[in-house]
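Troubleshooting log. The previous structure file for this entry was overwritten by mistake, so regenerating from the original sequence record. Sequence copied from the archived sheet and checked twice against the printout by T.R.
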Amino acid sequence: MFSQSKLTKLIVLLISGTLTLFSASCGSGKQTSVGLNGAQNGSGKSGGSNNGGGSSATPTPTPTPTPTPQPSPTPTLVSSPTPTPTPTPTAGNGGDDGGKGKGGQQGGGHGGRGVGSLKNVSIPGPSATELADVIQNKQAAIALGKAFFWEMQFGSDGVTACATCHFNAGADSRTNNQIDPGIRRVDANGNPAVDANTFHSNFGPNHALSISDFPLHTTISDNNNIVGSQGVFANKFNDVILAQGAENETSVADPVWSISDGNGGTMNVRRSTPRNAPPVINAVFNYRNFWDGRAQSTFNGVDPFGNGDPNARLLQTDPNNPNATIEVAFRLSNSSLASQAVGPPGSDVEMSATGRPFVKMGKKMLTLTPLGLQQVALDDSVLGSYSAAPKNGLNTNYIAMIQAAFQPKWWNSNVVVDANSNFLHNGTPQNTDEYSQMEYNFSMFWGVAIQMYESTLVSDNSRFDQYMEGNRNALTALEQTGLDRFQGKGNCTNCHSGAEFTDASVSNVLAQGSVVEELPGGRWHDVGFHNIGVRPTDDDWGIAAADPSGLASLSVAQMAALGQVTGTRVPLGAAVAVRGAVKTPSLRNVELTAPYFLNGGQATLSTLVDFYSRGGDFPSSDVDPRLERVSFDAGDKAAVVAFLKSLTDERVRNQSAPFDHPSLTIPNGAVINNGVLTEQTITIPATGASGGAPMAKFCDSLVGATAQTCQ
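Regenerated output below.
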C-alpha cells in the first residue's frame, strides 16, 4: 500500500488556451486552502462570476447535456515540470481515515498492475488539512451528501434526484424512454451531423426497449442511437418557488423528444442523455470523472472544470468583520467526484429547466424538508437517526445540516448579495433574487457533501476480493479459469487493471507518474482513456472533444501536442490517439450494471464478452492498438462471464450498508390516453443497513426477455 506520509496532488490547471500540469506538495496545506484574492463584498464591488453555472439561456432545438459558465480568461502559457505525483492518504468514510486491510495481488496487468482485493487500495480524496478548512464534521457531511444525492425535490420538476439515474448498483436499469438519437454525433469537420437528431427505425422517444433491440450493432444491422437515461422535460426556467420542489418553468416545444398526442398534435416526453449512465459505486477511484473526463481532479466549488474556470468564486466570511465577506478562489484537490456532482444539476437534459443557476437551487433547497417526498428507514446506516418515519423525510432541515457539516466561515455571514456576488445589504434576503452566503455557496456544499457520501460507496467484499485475500474456496473452478483467461488470453488487464479493474484510477496515474503515456507505435494518449471500436469515432469524440470551459480539447495529450500544455512528456507536434477515447469503466458489480458501454449497446455479459472476443466492431486508426481479436471459444466465454459475476459485492445486490438508501420514485416512460400524458413510474422501497430484496436487472426488464436470453 502507498505511503501516507506525504500528499502530492496532481493538478490539471486549465487556463483558457493553455493547460499546465504540475505537482505541488500539500503537506503544509498551503496549496489546498482557498486564495483570499477578492475584494470585500461590503464595498459593493465584485469581480466574481455567477456562481450558478450558467445564465438564463433561451432553449435551443438540440439541448446541451451540461450547460456551464463560459469564462473569458487571458491566455497564458506556463512551463512546468512533468508531474510525478505521490499517493494520497486513504480517505475511508468520505475523507481522511487510514487504509483498510492488505489484500493479495496477482501478477499481470497494465504497467505491472495486477488485479487484487480492493481492500488493498487507499481511497483517494483531499488531505486532512484540506478537509479541515472546509468540513467541521465528516459524518455530518456524509449524511448531508446522502440526503442530497437521493433528494427528489432537487430537480426543476421536483421529482428528479441524482439517484434517479444511479439507483440500481449505482447505474440505471430502466427500459422505457431511454433513447437518445445520438446528439453528440458529428461530421468529418466536427460539426453536428445531419442525423444527430434522427432516431433509428423502430426507435424513438418513449420507446420500450426489447431484447430483440440488442446488441445495437450486429453483422447484419446497425443502430447508432444511444441507450441513455431519461431526465427532464424541455422547459425554460423562470424562478424557484420557496418551500416547493417543482419550480416555475415554461414548457418549450421539443422537436426531438415528443410523440403524437393522438389528435394531430405532439406532446413532449422526457429528454434522454447522449451517454449511458456510468455507476457511481467505486467512482471515487477515478482520477477524472464522466466518460470524457471533464470532471477535473481539482474542484473549484462551482463547476466541473477546476482551474479551467478562473472566474469561479465563493464567498468566505471576512475574519475581521462578520458583517462582510471576501470573494475567494476555492480549490480542493483529488476531488473529481465533487467536480462531477455539480455538472448534471445545470443540465437541461438531466435535471434542470434551461437557465437555472446554482444560486437558485440553493435558494429552493434551503426551504425544503429534506427528502420530504421519500421514506427513510429508521435503521438507515447514515440517515437513520434523522429519519422522521413513519412520516416522510428527515427531522431536520438543510440549513442545520450544512451548519453541522461545514466550517462556519462558509455560511455564517449576514451579508446579502446578488447572483454576481455584488453586496446588497446585511440581514435576510428579501426576494428570490437576493442570496445569503449559504445560498451563494450552495454549489460547493453540494459538490463536497456528495463526494463525501460517494467516497463511502466502495464495494470491496466480492467473492473475488475474498479469494485474493486468501480464501481459495471463494471462487469456483470455472471462475478461476475465467480469471486466467481474463488476464492471459484475453489481455483484459491492458485496460481493466488493478484492484479497481480500470486504468483510469488515481492509483494507476500515481504508478505511471503521468496523466499521459505513449502507445505502441509511438502515438500518445491520456492514461485510462481508450477508443475500443464500440462506435465509429465521429459518433462521440469523447476526450478529444472541445472542453466546455473553452479549451480546444479535454485531452491533455492532444493539448500538449498542440503546444498548449507544458510539463508533459508529449513532444510538440506528436501524433496522438485520442479521438473517440473514453474512460475505462470499472468491472466491479458489472453483472448488475447493464446496459454496457458508452452507448448502452450491449444488454448481457455474454454479448459483452463476444465484442472483445472479435476485437471490437468498428476498426479504425483511432482504435487503441492494444485491442486485439482474442477469439474466445465457448468454454473461455463461459469462464470469463462466470468470473465477471464473481466481482459482485453482495451488499450492492442486496442494497445493504453502505449501499442502503431512502425510497425513490422514478419516471419510466409515459402513456397517452385521450390526449392526456400519464407518466409511468417505478417506486423503489427504502432499505436500511440490513438491505432488502435485489432489484431487477436491466435485461430482465426488457420486453420479450427470458431467463435464457438474459443468461
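Residues 1-105, 107-111 have pLDDT under 50 and may be disordered. Archived copy saved in two places this time.
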